[in-house]
Amino acid sequence: MASNYHDFHEFVKLMVRQDIIKTQRRRESMESHSPERRALLEYVEQFAAILTASGMQRMSARVFTYILVDDDVTYTAAEIAEGLGISLAAVSGAVRELISAGLLIKGRRASTRADVYRLNDEDIWGSIMLDRAGFLDRYQETAVAGIESLPAGPGRDRLVQTAAFMEFTKTEMTQMRERWNERRSELSAAFEARRRDREASH
Q1: 29-83 pLDDT per residue, tens
Q2: 197 sits in which H/E element
Q3: What is the pTM of this model?
Q4: Could you tell me if 63 and 78 are in contact, meaning their C-beta atoms sit under 8 angstroms apart?
Q5: Number of structural domains, the chain?
Q6: Within this chain, do residues 41 and 116 fall inside the same structural domain, yes or no?
């Protein structure tokens, strides 16, 4: 028992040390960049934290945000790894998940024949939103199973409401995505105009 506790304690200390080393290396890497580049990488971490809190894997969130906010159109795995200061193995897992989710597209750079990745610019945020549709389906199916097996009563009524809400949400999300695709250029331009007006008034 004491041996198991000791082994676990040593494992925890090792993980903490590795985390400290990674943090230090990331800080040193950040300090080697220009102020503009540091600002971009700091923003990547902020935005990625929000995506992670919403359910995206942390490394996938960092890779997605980096490609979203950096100015290049396509990136090799090596370029992503260098830009974020992460391993090629970490990039490989992240891009695989992002491609599966419809957020990245894999292509080939003609000059080098290297695999490259770019955003699925056609509908990034629609893809992110509707990526949750599978969860809604599972919630609805589970609620329906309860409706069919439980006797009439307040508990069953709440499950009916749950299933109806999931169905309503899926329909609304699909329609909202269609409206967004029709008007995204117009709405984006209007948002930027309002933002500049507010900035000018301060």
Answers
A1: 545 567 888 899 999 999 999 999 988 899 999 999 999 999 888 999 999 999 9
A2: helix 154-201
A3: 0.67
A4: no
A5: 2
A6: yes
